[in-house]
Amino acid sequence: MKIVLLGAPGSGKGTHAQRLTKELNIPQISTGDIFRKNLKEETPLGLQVKEIMAKGQLVPDAITVAIVKDRLAQDDCANGYILDGFPRSLVQAEELDKFEDVQFAVNIDVDKQAVIDRLSGRRFCPDCNGTYHVSTLNGQDKCPNCGGTLITRQDDSEQTVRDRLDVYEKTTMPLIDYYARQGKLVNVDGNGTIEEVYNRVLRAIGK
Ligand code: AP5
Ligand code: MG
Ligand code: ZN
C-alpha cells in the first residue's frame, strides 16, 4: 500500500506513520527525519538545510525529490510505504507522479490552535525518531521506546511554528485539491485523541 500523509505541521503525520509502519509492515519515509539525521551528523546535506529548517522554510524541491526517489528505489519499499511530509509542493507531487503511483493521500485536518498547542509540547527522540507530548510523559526526559534523551525540536519555537504554518497554507495546502482531482484524497478529522484519529486513518485506507 502506497500512502501519502498530508496535513499541517503538528497534525500527527509522524505519530500515525509510526503506528502504520508497524501495523502494515511497510516503511515510514519522513523527509523531515531524513533532514534532521543529516543535520545531527553534520553531513554536507545537513549543513545545506540547516538554515532553511531553522526558519521553517522548505528545502528546495530538486534536493528533496532526489532524496525521496533514491529512498523509494530501495528493496524495503517494494510492497509500499508511508510518505510522511512529502510531497509538500505541487512540483514535488508532480515529480512523484512521474515515478510512483500512490494509492491514497490521507489528509489529516486539525484546527490551527490545536496544532500550536501540540507543537509547543512536543518532545522528540533523535535516536529512534519517536515523537511524544509532555502531557503524556509524566516528567520523564528519556524516550519510552529506546531510552534516548528527548529534545525539543529547534523548529518548534512559537515564531517558527507560525512561519511553518504559513508555508503550509501557501505551498502545501494546494495538494489537497491536487489529490482530490486524482480521486486519491481521503479526509480525516484530526481533532480528538491519538487513538480516535488513528482509527479514522485506518478506516480511511480500508483497514
Ligand atoms: P517535518 O519534520 O515534516 O515537520 P512538519 O511537516 O512541520 O510536521 P511535524 O513533524 O511538525 O508534525 P507531524 O504532523 O508529524 O505531527 P506529530 O505526529 O509530530 O519537516 C520539518 C522541516 O523539514 C520542514 O519545515 C522543512 O524545512 C523540511 N522538510 C521536510 N519535508 C520537506 C519537503 N517534502 N520539502 C521541503 N522541505 C521539507 O505530532 C505533533 C505533536 O502532537 C506530538 O507531540 C504528538 O505527540 C502530538 N499529537 C499528535 N496527535 C495528537 C492528538 N490526536 N491529540 C493530542 N496530541 C497529539
Ligand atoms: Mg513529523
Ligand atoms: Zn527513542
Description:
- By secondary structure, this protein is an alpha/beta fold.
- It has helices at residues 13-24, 31-40, 44-54, 61-72, 90-99, 112-120, 134-137, 158-172, 174-181, 194-204, and strands at residues 2-7, 28-30, 81-84, 104-109, 122-124, 131-133, 185-189.
- The strands form 2 sheets. Strands 2-3-1-4-7 form a 5-stranded parallel sheet, sandwiched between helices. Strands 5-6 form a two-stranded antiparallel ribbon.
- Strand 5 (122-124) and strand 6 (131-133) form a beta hairpin.
- The protein starts with a strand and ends with a helix.
- The structure holds BIS(adenosine)-5'-pentaphosphate (AP5), magnesium ion and zinc ion.
- Zinc ion binds at residues 125, 127-128, 130, 143, 145-146, 148.
What does the main sheet amount to?
5 strands, parallel
Total number of helical segments?
10
SSE topology string: EHEHHHEHEHEEHHHEH
Could you say which small molecules are bound to this protein?
BIS(adenosine)-5'-pentaphosphate, magnesium ion, zinc ion
Strand content: 5-15%
Q: Average the pLDDT over all residues and give the rounded result.
A: 96
Q: What is the CA-based Rg, rounded? A: 16 Å
Tell how many strands the DSSP assignment holds.
Answer: 7
Could you name the ranges where pLDDT drops below 50 across 5 or more consecutive residues? none
User: Helical content, roughly?
Assistant: 40-55%
- Overall shape: it is globular
Alpha-carbon distance between the two ends: 11 Å
Q: For the largest sheet, list the strands in their spatial order.
A: 2-3-1-4-7
